[in-house]
Amino acid sequence: MLTPAEVVIFYRVNAQSRAIEEALVRRRLPYYIVGGVRFYELREVKDLLAYLRVIVNPADAISLERMVGAPPRGIGRKTIEAIAEVAAREKRTMFDAMGRLGPVSAVALRTAKQADALYEWMHALAERAPRLGVRALLDEVIARSGYLEWLDPQSDGSVRRQNLAELLAAAGAFDSENGPGGAAGFLERVALVSDADQVASRGGRVALMTLHTSKGLEYPAVFIAGMEEGLFPHSRSQETGDVEEERRLCYVGMTRARRMLYLTSTLSRELYGVRQEPLRSRFLAEIAAALVRKLGATLRPAAAPEPSAARPPIDGRDSYVDYTDSQLAEDELSPDGLGIGARVMHPTFGRGVVRRREGRGESAKAWVNFERGGLKLLVLKFANLRPIAE
After folding, report:
1. 41-188: which CATH number, 3.30.450.20, 3.40.109.10, 1.10.486.10, 3.10.20.340?
2. b/e map of 182-215 (b: 16 or more CB within 10 Å)?
3. pLDDT at residue 105, as a whole number
């Protein structure tokens, strides 16, 4: 029988680690990440979680300090010290003291106004928190704080934005299980993942790492997660013509296995806030059938759609969805010009056609049928779609 130390799980992109980490913690399997940090320890993820922690516990001074600086608001060290002084003098939390800086002469009027505005907004959000899901709370934090506008110009802004989309996907999944008012419970789940090192094991820990980190290492059992088109090979490789490099990367990962190799794909995946019904990776078809033993369900070709189908089936390239039962009027759904039937361009998937819209405002989503990537569900806030002329 294998011990945890004899197992490695490879993945193509860092954001995949979040679901794997949570699954290992649920099963009390200890793990560590090679050449990287845990998902909930990523800078941008910790920034957003700081807002949640202040909402749940206004006395959390450490999270408050992180919150006021992400993004920077001109509230520096001297202002934090002034807030702490007001809190101590008036026997308040630092959060409450942040809204009472007006009379403090050591703080510039402009800075005091910034702090007061942040307090008023967060105080109102905390009052509404019991009626809101975690996803809705994070959506408002991102929209009102200007976090994305600060993040995007940074050299690694696009990668960090993708990690935030994965955080929102995790929050949405939590809301589906627990309903509104679950911010404290979500933070408890995050703490369980963050404290996974405390899980004792005589057999060592499972290794998690990206495939780019795999060279030179060998393990008795190797899992490669996400053997799907668009993920591995990555969609960017099809644009740049580097699919052969992806193939070599796959070969390197596979040859790290001494005894057992598991290649996994999923029937449905949400990554970066995008729900997909993926195709199996072309690399799986290149393995001799005699060497493969299939376990569980596999991605299958499209079946003939039922006329009353309510959502896309698991399928191949010719995806189908019933677009006749929109719940909202078209003018309510598409003030952004991305209405049903609109032709659009996506930076990764290329040209496509909007087939259905769901939700409003910050939570708006669209099913888009792409020429290259097939049918995908995109969170419009993160999708970077733009309408194009026919």
Report:
1. 1.10.486.10
2. bbeebbebbebbbebeebeeeeebbbbbbbebbe
3. 63
3-state secondary structure of 95: helix
What angle, rounded to 10 degrees, do the helices at 43-56 and 61-68 form?
Answer: 130
Cβ–Cβ under 8 Å, residues 149 and 22: no
Where does the pLDDT of residue 128 fall: very low under 50, low under 70, confident under 90, or very high at 90 and above? very high
Domain with CATH 2.40.10.170 in the chain: 330-387
**DSSP structural state of residue 181:** S
Tell me the C-alpha distance between 241 and 177, whole Å: 41
What's the mean pLDDT in 268-276? 70
C-beta of residue 278 within 8 angstroms of C-beta of residue 231: yes
pTM assigned to the model: 0.67
- Residue 26: pLDDT band with limits 50, 70, 90: confident
CATH topology of domain 330-387: Thrombin, subunit H (2.40.10)
Per the CB < 8 A criterion, the answer to whether 312 and 328 are in contact is: no
